[in-house]
Structures are given as structure tokens and as C-alpha cells.
């Protein structure tokens, strides 16, 4: 049997979906499993032993490049297509694959037309009204699956691990110090998820004073990170735009603690087994924060609003440097006690 999974983004969601991928493999070990995703996420999944082949949607919007991907999939003749992205576009992709049975989530009624069986998926705003998380494994229940893999995975090629020491030397990271990794950025446009610049700066200074190696990570918006660093008394390490996906994961894996916004490093940290604190404001961590992550969230009268931009930012302003620092120090102390030879 040939099973095609459709998952087109975003980065954190694809990492979270690794448990779904592994669940499919565990329950259908003798079958061929394929993935359709975007080319930009190739590094995230290409080392996975789950997939027999990965089909990549091109960055270009040229119709013939797009069509070529689906011609190849139709030649494959998938028996089952699983759409775990669940929007109208990917629902239509299900139809284009020519899959005999097409199971998936849908948000709009029109998307249900393209599926053999579908499950209505709530938007984030709709989910906020309910006291439970919508389990992604519901699609597999349609196939009679009973064994689920709960852990998330990150697949890093062995060659990347071997070359990581060269990466450390290149950017003069102190491997003898404990690392605190900070990620102040968010996905494009989601400004309401960001904690205040001056508070990230003060927090970084306090950790450097404590003797930690403080490392900023992220992609794009160099000016934003430079503005944070300009407000600091000490000089941290700035790896913005200096890591590919695998080196980013290895930096996080080596860190003693990661402090991040509601963004992909939160999911990478959990999958890597690294202690992590998520700073939440406009989104509700009880609904979307991955299990295994700690978070700080102070609900105000307008939260969670799930807005991309907010002129007030009251929810983020209520979270102080002391709130984050105190929680971080407690987690670091607990971790040190856990692995102390004298404990």
C-alpha cells in the first residue's frame, strides 16, 4: 500500500507532526510512505527514515513546475492520502494526487468536497473557546489506528553532527560555558507575539553577568536583533542568519535553556530534549504550547486575541524581566541538581 501525507507548513507544525509521521510508520511498517511538503522545508524532513520519497512544492509560482510535482504523484497512484494541513488549498491537492482514499482536516465546507472522509478543524480563535486541544491523530482513527507515537523527532544527518565542532570554532562559541539561547523573533507579520526589545536586552545582560554564554538565534530582521544588542551592556553571540536548520537544532540541543516567543524554536527545543520557556501573549499556551515546554503567560482582558499586530501589547508588557529570569534560574538550578554528582 502507498500512503501519501500532505503537510506544507509551518516549520514548528512540521516538527510537531513528526509524531504523526512516526505513528503512520509504526502502524504500517511494510507499506510505502510518502510526503508532500514545500521545498523550503526540505532540510527538516530529508533525513527522516519514515519516507520512501518526499515530493517538494517549488518556491516558484510557475504553473508547469507545480504541475510536474502532481504528475509524479499521480504516477505513484497512492492508495491513501492524509491531509494533516487541513486548509482549502491542501484539500484540493488531495484531489489532484488521484488518491483512491483521501482523509483530512478541512476548515471550509468547500474543502470537504475533495475528501473521501473529513474532520472539521477549528481555527485558533475557535479553539480558544474550548477547554481541550483538538488531537491531530483523529484522522488515523478513521484508519483504525490504535498505537500512537507521542514523541516528536528531529532528524539530523551524522555528517552535520561531526561538523558541528567546526561551526562552534567558526563563530567562537565558548563550548566550556553553559549556553542560554534567546529567540526574540516570530513568523513574518506576527508582531503581537513579540516580547519587548529592552526586556530581552536586560535579560541577556543578567545571564551574561551570571557567567552564561548568551546566543541570539533567528532568521531575517538583522536590524531588529541589532537594536536589542545595542541596548545591552555586554556583547552576546549573534547567530542570526548564520545557521542552517540542522546547525540551529544542534545549537538548541547543546543549550542549557532556550527562551523564545511562540515560534518554531519552542518545538525544536522539545524535540531536542532541551529545557525551554515560551513567552506567550496574544496566543493561548494551554491550547498550542507543545507538551514538555514551560511557558509564561499573563492573561489580560483582551487575550488571547490571536492578532498579528497590536498597538497596545498589554499582554506582553505585563511579563517582566524578573518573571522570566526567576523562572529560568529555577529551571537551571533544578537541572543542575538533577545531574549533580553530589545529589
Radius of gyration in whole Å, from Cα?
21 Å
CATH homologous superfamily grouping of the largest domain: Glycogen Phosphorylase B
Profile the largest sheet.
6 strands, parallel
- Structural class by secondary-structure content: alpha/beta
Low-confidence segments, given as residue ranges, are: 131-137
Instruction: Indicate the CATH class of the largest domain.
Output: Alpha Beta
**Anisotropy-based shape:** globular
- What fraction of the residues are assigned to beta strands by DSSP? 15-25%
Helix content: 25-40%
Distance between the termini: 52 Å
* Strands in their spatial order, largest beta sheet: 3-2-1-4-5-6
Brief write-up:
The chain is an alpha/beta fold. Helices cover 40% and strands 16% of the residues.
Descriptive report:
By secondary structure, the protein is α/β, with parallel strands linked by helices. The protein folds into 2 domains: 140 residues, Glycogen Phosphorylase B (Rossmann fold); 181 residues, Glycogen Phosphorylase B (Rossmann fold, 3-Layer(aba) Sandwich), CATH 3.40.50.2000. Helix content is 40%, strand content 16%. The protein has a 6-stranded parallel beta sheet, with helices on both faces. It has a 6-stranded parallel beta sheet with strand order 9-8-7-10-11-12, with helices on both faces. Helix 13 packs across helix 14. The longest helix has 19 residues. It is globular and about 60 Å long. About 2% of the residues have low confidence.
Amino acid at each position: 500500500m502507498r500512503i501519501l501525507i500532505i503537510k506544507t507548513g509551518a516549520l514548528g507544525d512540521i516538527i510537531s507532526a513528526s509524531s504523526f509521521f512516526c505513528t503512520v510508520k509504526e502502524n504500517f511498517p511494510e507499506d510505502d510512505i510518502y510526503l508532500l511538503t514545500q521545498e523550503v522545508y526540505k532540510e527538516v524532513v530529508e533525513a527522516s527514515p519514515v519516507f520512501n520519497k518526499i515530493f517538494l512544492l517549488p518556491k516558484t509560482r510557475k504553473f508547469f513546475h507545480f504541475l510536474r510535482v502532481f504528475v509524479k504523484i499521480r504516477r505513484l497512484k497512492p492508495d491513501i492520502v492524509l491531509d494533516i494541513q487541513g486548509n482549502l488549498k491542501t484539500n484540493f491537492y488531495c484531489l489532484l494526487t488521484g488518491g483512491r482514499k483521501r482523509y483530512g482536516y478541512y476548515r471550509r465546507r468547500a474543502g470537504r468536497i475533495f475528501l473521501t472522509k473529513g474532520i472539521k478543524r477549528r481555527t485558533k480563535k475557535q479553539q480558544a473557546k474550548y477547554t481541550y486541544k483538538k488531537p491531530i491523530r483523529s484522522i488515523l482513527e478513521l484508519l483504525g489506528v490504535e498505537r500512537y507515537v507521542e514523541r516528536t523527532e528531529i532528524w539530523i544527518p551524522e555528517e552535520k553532527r561531526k561538523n558541528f565542532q567546526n561551526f562552534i570554532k567558526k563563530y567562537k562559541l565558548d563550548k566550556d560555558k553553559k549556553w542560554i539561547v534567546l529567540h526574540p523573533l516570530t513568523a513574518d507579520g506576527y508582531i503581537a507575539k513579540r516580547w519587548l526589545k529592552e526586556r530581552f536586552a536586560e535579560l541577556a545582560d543578567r545571564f551574561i553577568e551570571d557567567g552564561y554564554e548568551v546566543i541570539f538565534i533567528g532568521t531575517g530582521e538583522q536590524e531588529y536583533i541589532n537594536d536589542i544588542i545595542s541596548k545591552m551592556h555586554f556583547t552576546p553571540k549573534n547567530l542570526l542568519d548564520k545557521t542552517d536548520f540542522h546547525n540551529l537544532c544542534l545549537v538548541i540541543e547543546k543549550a542549557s535553556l532556550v527562551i523564545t516567543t511562540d515560534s518554531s524554536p519552542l518545538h525544536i527545543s522539545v524535540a531536542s530534549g532541551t529545557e525551554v520557556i515560551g513567552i506567550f501573549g496574544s496566543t493561548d499556551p494551554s491550547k498550542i504550547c507543545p507538551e514538555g515546554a514551560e511557558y509564561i503567560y499573563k492573561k489580560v482582558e483582551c487575550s488571547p486575541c490571536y492578532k498579528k499586530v497590536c498597538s497596545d501589547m498589554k499582554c506582553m508588557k505585563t511579563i517582566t524581566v524578573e518573571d522570566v529570569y526567576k523562572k529560568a534560574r529555577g529551571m537551571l538550578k533544578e537541572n543542575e541538581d538533577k545531574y549533580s554528582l553530589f545529589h
